[in-house]
Each structure stands twice: as structure tokens, then as C-alpha cells.
């Protein structure tokens, strides 16, 4: 009875968990993704569509090396992926922090992290370094790939399932779209 009294409101109005997930993301990963994005932006006002050469080295390490570290030798596909990845690394984290299109942004971030992890493992050769890859259930929780990114994916899963929660742009948009009393809007 005491359990139900304490936790039933949380069952009905599960808005706190997504808010906390967004705050944890902002506190721990927002700077990481934005710093990474800044290394990909080229010089000048067109830097968002003319990536720095380091962007190609990060995203296509083996192809960039094979092209003699000359981005002009790579194709339109490489340019499009680098530009889209750079924009995603800026916009998706911003959307998560604001709680704007939270579910889509969380799914996008999960996909981004999968591609990032595969690039790290196979493109940059981390697969050959067991300490970087790590292993689950090994009582050593500090591996960069399996351990850390599992926690990232948990945050994204919470946000993809629960939405933005309290104090999110999504919640504000829902209130505008449905002017009924707030107590009836999920």
C-alpha cells in the first residue's frame, strides 16, 4: 500500500526520467559531440559545407589515407557523409538537450553512435585493442567502446521510448496542439 502511494504518481506521469536523461546527456556528452563536430568544420563562412580535411580522416580513415590525404580525390558520397555527419553531430545533440523531436533525435543519435563505433573499431583499428573494445561482465567498466557506449545507448533508449519529458519543447508543442488542461496531456 505504501509502495503504491509513493510510486503510482510516477507511473502515471513519467516525466522526470526523460528530463534527467536529457540533463545527464547535456552534462556528459553534449560537449564531447560538439567538440568533435568543431574539428570537422572547415574554414570560413562555408565551413559547414566544406569540411576540414580532418573530418575525412575521422570518418573515412582508410579511404582518406588511400587518397593520399587529399579530400579532392574522394567522391561526392564521401563529402555528403562527412557533411551530414557533421550537421548531425551538431543538431541531434541540440535537439536532445532542448527536448525537440526527442524520440527521433534519440534514434538518430543511437544510429550515429553505432556508425561511430564501427568506424572506431574497423576504420581506426580499435578492434585490435582489447582494452579499448572491452568486454561486458568482466568487472572492468572503463572500456571506451562496449562499456561507455552502452551507457550512451541506454540514455538514447530512454529518450526514444519516453520522449522529452518535463521541460521539453516537445511537451510545450503538445500543450499548444491540445489545449485541454495539462493534467490530461501525457
From TrEMBL:
<keyword id="KW-1003">Cell membrane</keyword>
<protein>
    <submittedName>
        <fullName>DoxX subfamily protein</fullName>
    </submittedName>
</protein>
<keyword id="KW-1133">Transmembrane helix</keyword>
<keyword id="KW-0472">Membrane</keyword>
<dbReference type="InterPro" id="IPR051907">
    <property type="entry name" value="DoxX-like_oxidoreductase"/>
</dbReference>
<comment type="similarity">
    <text>Belongs to the DoxX family.</text>
</comment>
<dbReference type="InterPro" id="IPR032808">
    <property type="entry name" value="DoxX"/>
</dbReference>
<feature type="transmembrane region" description="Helical">
    <location>
        <begin position="90"/>
        <end position="115"/>
    </location>
</feature>
<dbReference type="GO" id="GO:0005886">
    <property type="term" value="C:plasma membrane"/>
</dbReference>
<keyword id="KW-0812">Transmembrane</keyword>
<dbReference type="Pfam" id="PF07681">
    <property type="entry name" value="DoxX"/>
</dbReference>
<feature type="transmembrane region" description="Helical">
    <location>
        <begin position="15"/>
        <end position="34"/>
    </location>
</feature>
Amino acid at each position: 500500500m505504501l509502495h503504491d502511494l509513493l510510486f503510482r504518481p510516477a507511473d502515471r506521469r513519467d516525466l522526470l526520467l526523460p528530463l534527467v536523461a536529457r540533463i545527464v546527456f547535456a552534462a556528459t556528452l553534449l560537449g564531447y559531440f560538439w567538440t568533435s563536430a568543431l574539428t570537422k568544420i572547415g574554414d570560413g563562412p562555408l565551413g559547414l559545407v566544406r569540411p576540414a580535411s580532418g573530418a575525412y580522416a575521422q570518418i573515412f580513415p582508410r579511404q582518406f589515407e588511400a587518397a593520399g590525404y587529399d579530400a579532392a580525390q574522394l567522391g561526392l558520397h564521401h563529402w555528403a557523409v562527412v557533411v551530414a555527419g557533421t550537421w548531425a553531430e551538431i543538431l541531434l545533440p541540440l535537439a536532445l538537450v532542448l527536448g525537440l523531436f526527442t524520440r527521433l533525435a534519440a534514434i538518430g543519435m543511437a544510429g550515429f553512435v553505432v556508425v561511430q563505433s564501427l568506424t572506431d573499431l574497423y576504420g581506426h583499428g580499435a578492434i585490435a585493442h582489447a582494452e579499448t573494445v572491452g568486454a561486458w561482465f568482466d568487472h572492468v567498466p572503463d572500456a571506451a567502446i562496449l562499456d561507455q557506449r552502452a551507457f550512451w545507448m541506454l540514455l538514447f533508449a530512454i529518450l526514444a521510448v519516453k520522449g522529452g519529458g518535463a521541460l521539453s519543447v516537445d511537451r510545450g508543442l503538445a500543450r499548444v496542439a491540445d489545449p485541454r488542461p495539462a493534467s490530461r496531456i501525457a
